[in-house]
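Subject: Phosphatidylinositol-specific phospholipase C X domain-containing protein

B.,
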Amino acid sequence: DWDSTPDALWPNWMADISDSKSVAELSIPGTHNTMAFYGGALVECQRWPLSQQYKAGIRFVDIRCRHIENNLTIHHDVVYQQAILGDVFRDTIAFLKENTGEAILMRIKKEYDETGCTQPFDKTLKNKIEAYGQSNFWVKNQIPTLGEARGKIVIIENYPCASVGINYWSLDIADDYHVPTIFHTPQKWSGVKDHLEKARYGSCSQIFLTFASGSSGGAYPNAVADRVNPELYYYLNGFGDQTIRWGIIVMDFPASILVHKVLFLQLKI
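Prediction pasted inline below.
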């Protein structure tokens, strides 16, 4: 979807799923480089603002933070995305206050060079969490049930000396992000499909994380999404109304119809 507004909204799709379900048992639509809106076609990965992503059903977000002067600014590599982590926390908590049955899984990744800091990244992050209210976050290193996670930001830590939340590297991850040219998108899709098959049959005590996104100087994010996202949709659509656990599927520029395809079967769980 190249527009700034989703075609359809599912702001509370988690609400009717059983509290006893582990987060690892769910199929969760997510966005790659969630806040990458600026910097041109090589850098931009999304069109929908964060609040609209949540309303559209996105429940995993990929937040990249540069540690600068004891603050956490949102970056895609060198490019500042005109936001800070506090903005992300504020908008996410506001959404969760309005939709108390939902939970947001938030990967926090250290991005680009650190400068002007007098404390480690994890200390700055802890300070931000405390400033926005510890009760709004799941910061344990174990996978919560949906009942435990409702109304909270579930932190997935991806930075040195991590000490808050679920360790990113404890997930089963497929992130072949380098797609040399658009002619390599069939290989990219093949890897995505292979990992989805692994998630389909894998242990439901394990979180599976599949990145359908990719890019390079020879294949911009929008060009890869334009080729991989339809393949993903038709693949998922081929399973009809079967209830299958796919884990987290992370996308650039997802259309509403694709987001819905990831999440809709769980509405009857």
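The two ends are 28 Å apart (CA to CA).

T.
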